[in-house]
Specification:
The structure is a single chain. The longest helix is centred in the C-terminal third of the chain and has 32 residues, at about 80-110. This protein is mainly α. The protein has a domain at about 75-110. It has helices spanning about 5-30, 65-70, 80-110.
Length: about 110
Amino acid sequence: MIYFGRRARLCLLAICSLGASQLLVAQDNTLDLKSTFKGNQEQPKVMYIVPWQSIQAPPASYRPVSSLISENFQLVDREEFQRNVHFSDRIEQAQRDEKERFERYRDSLK
């Protein structure tokens, strides 16, 4: 057995008692909060989801052939048709002019 001197034993005893006293103090400073939550025991185990809006049928993804035929063979107002042709021509001319201006600008940079 290892022999300790009297001083060594006293030092060891002091260190152990200090550690134990710190544990006791730390335990005294803790605060235990106890609470319980109790819910309603009679709540149902099933949930029902009720829509708040009426269900509507999805839009038709196809058009009947008869509507396509009638759309292609409708009466056309002469003035409206000429106006559409005129606007289409002006748009195409503006696009051509813009393209020509861009090409001239690009060529000037070379």
